[in-house]
Amino acid sequence: MSSILEEVKKTKIIKEADIIVIGGGPSGVAAAVTAGEQGMKTIIVEKNGFFGGANVAGYSGTIGGLYSSTENGDIEQIVYGFAGRFLDLLKEKKGVVEKVKFGHTALAPHDPFIWKEIADKLINNAHVKALLHTSFVDVIMEENKIVGIIVENKDGRSAIKGKIFIDATGDGDVAFKAGAPYIYGKDGVIQAMTMAFRMANVDWNKASKYSLEDIWEKVKEADETGIYDLPRKHPFVFPLPRKDQAMMNCTAIIGANNKVLYPTKAEDLTYAEFAGREQVREYERFAKEYLEGFEDAYIIDTASEIGIRQSRTILGEYTLKNEDVVNAKKFDTAIVRSAWPIEIHGGSQGVKVVNLDDNYYEIPFEVMLPQKIEGIMTVGRCISAEHEALASARVVAQCFEEGHAAGYAATLCVRENTMPNEVDVKRVRAFMIENGSKL
Ligand SMILES: Cc1cc2nc3c(=O)[nH]c(=O)nc-3n(C[C@H](O)[C@H](O)[C@H](O)COP(=O)(O)OP(=O)(O)OC[C@H]3O[C@@H](n4cnc5c(N)ncnc54)[C@H](O)[C@@H]3O)c2cc1C
């Protein structure tokens, strides 16, 4: 491939701070708010015009990972801390439906606008400097230590310097640019993307009789007629806090000839956005014709961007193993627990759910410490975990708590002039427990 030499330019340093958080999804918001509340000069950089990441822009639409898992339906909340605080704020604003059944556990569907409002308030009250509509594009390194980032927005290209960096981009963009080792899923196979959408004018008095399993039976019936194109056989439909609305997590975007699509490739993302919107119409047609209560329902909107479940996994000082998850392993350096199932959206292979009943595993701090690079922590869905382990650990309650832990660990680093891999995790855990986390 031919190439050109770009003109070398001087880049203005526009800001300096103690802690720079890149990405404003659940993990980034939790990290920035925690650091800001500790009095750290904190900046959060987000490419969209609002916070929420895949949970809001991608309409993943529910907080998973809050509850225990058991076959007898006796579910209790097991994750608190920042995740519990966010849930309580959603409850205060009537922005959430609690404990909606999902397999042997439950989840909490929420209103996307109320999520954004809460995040705006938390960020501003914590005196975090937010830069929305701003994309991270590169790192400034001193040997193997990150000391700054390059961002681009309508003002052009500029530099931001900092002491500690938290990569909450979901895709591990910052760690990747810094040269940290990474993998894609299992031998390059990652989970399918989804274009989620919302429907309104749903009569839940009728529709609430369906379990997810009933809906999957209906998909089978529709498929047998041969007049539908429903590539995902196990769609999820959840009630939303506004009484006549449904969150439709139904589509599965698979490349031509089952090609794996990579969310870090613009051409694959473009394909997924187009194909996703086409599938949305087909699942709307299915819902209106096969599900009682959906006859007069209509699409309000699709997610503002394609939903990404998995891309780069940044290899850390510890990698959460599949056996840790299925054997409910506990760690001295645990920062959050989880009983969320291994939930894999395998494109053409369908959705597989492995329940983790009557116990929980823990996620240790070291999954957030990228190998070889200093001055950075990775949080959220790019933490170091094997493919199936990540299919459980990636959900929102755990992302919130990873951000909670990283925000405080970064604070300790700034106060004591140390690096994340030198932090005494006992102190991080003690802080989290004081702040409501159950560890
Ligand atoms: C379709 C779908 C359904 C799901 N269902 C559920 C569910 O029911 N329950 C549940 O708990 N979880 C669910 N998940 C998973 C969950 O939503 C994600 O794993 C979680 O949101 C990840 O959080 P995060 O903070 O790691 O990253 P993300 O939420 O991906 O946020 C990353 C943020 O970084 C920003 N960003 C990225 N790159 C840059 C850059 N270069 N510069 C600046 N900003 C950048 C993005 O705009 C985004 O705001 C689902 C995911 C998908 C896709």
Short descriptors:
439 residues; alpha/beta; FAD/NAD(P)-binding domain; 2 domains; five-stranded parallel sheet; four-stranded mixed sheet; globular; binds flavin-adenine dinucleotide
Can you walk me through this structure?
It is a single chain. 30% of the residues lie in helices and 22% in strands. It is α/β, with parallel strands linked by helices and 439 residues long. It has 2 domains: 13-188 and 310-434, 3-Layer(bba) Sandwich (FAD/NAD(P)-binding domain); 197-302, no CATH class. The strands form 7 sheets. It has a 5-stranded parallel sheet with strand order 7-3-2-11-22. Strands 1-10-9-8 form a 4-stranded mixed sheet. A hairpin with a 6-residue loop joins strand 14 and strand 15 (246-249). The structure holds flavin-adenine dinucleotide. Flavin-adenine dinucleotide binds next to helix 1, helix 2, strand 4, strand 8 and helix 11.
